[in-house]
Amino acid sequence: MSRGAQVIVAGAGALGLSCALALADAGCAVTVCDPGGFGRASSVAAGMLAPAFECALEPDMALHADLLFAARDQWAALEARIGLTLDRSGALALGGDVWLADIHAALVRLGVPMTEVGRGTIEALAPDVSPPDPYETAPPAISSALQRGLLVREDWRLESKPALTALRTACEASGVAFQTERVSERSAADALVLAVGYDRGLAELAPELDVLFPIKGQILRYGDVKGGGVCLRSPWGYAVPSSEGLIFGATMELGRSDLEFDAVAFADLIAGSGSLFAHQDSHAYKAERGIRAATPDGLPMVGPSRTPGVILATGARRNGWLLAPLVAQVVTAWVTGRDPGPYAARLDPARFGSGTSA
Ligand SMILES: Cc1cc2nc3c(=O)[nH]c(=O)nc-3n(C[C@H](O)[C@H](O)[C@H](O)COP(=O)(O)OP(=O)(O)OC[C@H]3O[C@@H](n4cnc5c(N)ncnc54)[C@H](O)[C@@H]3O)c2cc1C
User: Fold this and answer.
1) CB-neighbour burial class of residue 254 (10 A; exposed 0-12, middle 13-18, buried 19+)
2) What are 118-166's pLDDT values in tens digits?
3) Cys-Cys link to 143, which of 131, 196, 255, 358 (CB 3.0-4.6 A)?
4) Are 14 and 47 members of one domain?
5) Is 354 a member of any domain?
6) Which atom of ligand 1 is nearest to the CA of 184?
7) Nearest C-alpha to atom 14 of ligand 1 is from which residue?
């Protein structure tokens, strides 16, 4: 394939829109097809671009720290390209002594700079944090956990819905066409990019999709608390400020691809948010849910399917926003016949074999 290729992108989430824009910028004639019109997981996401804490919290991800940091660095160009402003105020870890010591050790191993902060700085950086009253409900371990923290400036964030709008606007301005259609087969276009999130219904078209599994994620959005400044990472969950209200998340429900309300998972989330925001009205939230597509090694499948002309861009698990510009660059290189770069081998869909259905 080459510059000027006709490309269909299936899926208008973070990955599909980022790919469509990069392909259009590379001179391709691009059509995005999505029956829903808007990324399902992408619009629910907290929007953290968080290589430092993702690697500190998930040992499997630490193996790919270079890739995650490279993806974050690519956001600077995409930010300018689509006229979005990322928040770079960072993330603050709050937790018990043992948990904080583990995070500290993991950040040291990663070579991530951090600052130890006390109660005064925590209040300035995260004014909504309110320790539970130790004489009422909270175990002392929780209230003492909010007296010190670790501040990391390496993690950034965006707001997912405005970011999707900005990507779509940039795509339209670059001549990308949009259709509200479900893609079910390879068309006459030169290339078909499958950025469909969790949709194993397409495994006949691309057998590699067989390895995908779903992880349902639920978040709370507290409309009356905007939150300020930094994201919070804690053993009870994360809290992310947004213009639509403070986001507290998220559940990781392995194997679940339904969007049903789940009372048990929700009770855990509410209890978790109460550990950080004791004075928060625990009923004043809106619930949102999304399905993450995941692969066995936690990295997405990005590159050619064994079906000729089909390129995969899916399986980004809990880092689809972080990885979006890197995924778009690799997909565009494959479509236009350029070098897909140093991370292509780790993202190659063939690394799991070819799936079971072909
Ligand atoms: C609760 C939660 C919190 C998260 N927080 C973060 C975070 O802070 N940072 C981060 O980086 N990531 C986060 N993620 C993960 C991130 O949301 C995903 O990795 C990312 O959105 C995946 O984007 P996508 O474009 O692959 O999928 P999606 O956003 O799901 O988009 C796929 C699109 O494909 C369309 N589609 C499906 N089948 C077809 C078809 N056959 N034809 C055409 N279109 C089709 C769908 O309608 C959908 O719009 C979070 C996820 C969840 C659920």
Assistant:
1) exposed
2) 999 998 998 888 766 554 555 544 556 688 999 999 999 999 999 999 9
3) 131
4) yes
5) no
6) 41
7) 318
